[in-house]
Amino acid sequence: MLDLVASAQNLFPDIVELRRELHRFPERGNHLPKTRQILLEALEGLPLDLKLHETTSGVVAVLPGDPEGRVILLRADMDALPLTEETGLEFASRHDGFMHACGHDLHTAMLVGAARLLSSMREQIPGTVLFMFQPGEEGFAGARFMLEEGLLDTAGRRPSGAFALHVNTWTPTGVLMHRKGAQLASDDRVVITVRGKGGHASAPYLSYDPIPVAAEIVLATQTAITRRINVFDPGVITFASVEAGTTHNVIPETARLEGTIRAISDSTREQLHALLRRIAPGVAAAHGVEAEVEIVRGYPVTVNDPEHTDRVDSVARRVLGDQAVRWLEAPIMGSEDWGYVLQEVPGTMSFLGACPPDRNPLQAPGLHSNRIILDEAAMPYGIALHAAMVLAER
Ligand SMILES: [Zn+2]
Ligand SMILES: [Zn+2]
Fold first, then answer.
1. In this structure, are residues 184 and 334 in contact, taking their beta carbons and an 8 Å threshold?
2. Rounded to the nearest whole angstrom, what is the distance from the C-alpha of residue 338 to the centroid of ligand 2?
3. How many angstroms does the Cα of residue 173 sit away from the middle of ligand 1?
4. pTM above 0.90, yes or no
5. Fewer CB within 10 A of the terminal residue: the chain, N end or C end?
6. Ligand 1 ion local residues (Cβ < 5 A)
7. Band of the pLDDT at 2, cuts 50, 70, 90?
8. Strand positions, DSSP E, the chain
């Protein structure tokens, strides 16, 4: 298995070039024409059946193998973020206002590397490999659209395992982390509108001021979470936007709260929704006004299948060495649309360290920072891990 890292190292110069080309032309959302074009050029000449999705820029590349063998799904996301890059890198973004700040350029390049590596050792592959290149991870549910367009039936049989990597700067290069069960949270959005009655700010008793009610809803929500939610199955509600009023002497008609709801189990997720639907109108009614609650469901909890994750763990220890693989103690409250795929196929997401050696992982700008620099030296490890997960199916 250690040879896989050496083989991946041989691909390194080309993969770095590919990653930098992707980095120069970041695109956001579900339609990534330039990115798809770069990807398709990089896959040219490989023995792959390509399926270009129509509802999004998603691409599924199939490496056909033993028709009796298993189907393994490997995934990379390809989209970028609306940020203005300030890394000073020579290959920095040329698309103003957009940046690959979540490492999806590395993910795509690594998966292309894995496709090249596995294509060169086809006779050793025990089944069929689906390479999933998805757009729209950053809030556009690209994975869900690809599932709806038949992702899992691409090879004629459904995948029996699914694997994805996400790079980060909070661990040194080459360190791999994951956990069994929930690894990332669900992510829903809530908007609460408190409707009062506007008037002169000097005479609140003649109007119904929505602002103190909104403030009380914020605080009551935090109190309720500590009283109603099981501390061993936690949840987070953060109101990150509060809007009301136009000037100092007018009581506005409405106040608006917007926030995020995170949980690591479906039951807490539903409880948090119910709690908001009870508290906001309840607090409002106590003050003679009304509150309307709108919840927009986002990504589900990303749940690593315990058995599959055990397999990833032992494969990774053989590829990277025992000291480089660690169990993640607690889930992370960020979210991923990989969760949609893991609802259908037993699989895993592992976090791959990519902090440059001259930076401190505790202080280095992290994912979604416009100053993030990821260590390209992590890519051969990622390529080797993807390939190893396929070969381990024998
Ligand atoms: Zn991200
Ligand atoms: Zn990401």
1. yes
2. 10
3. 19
4. yes
5. C
6. 102
7. low
8. 49-52, 59-63, 71-77, 128-134, 161-172, 176-178, 181-184, 186-195, 199-200, 235-244, 250-251, 254-263, 290-299, 302-304, 325-327, 347-355
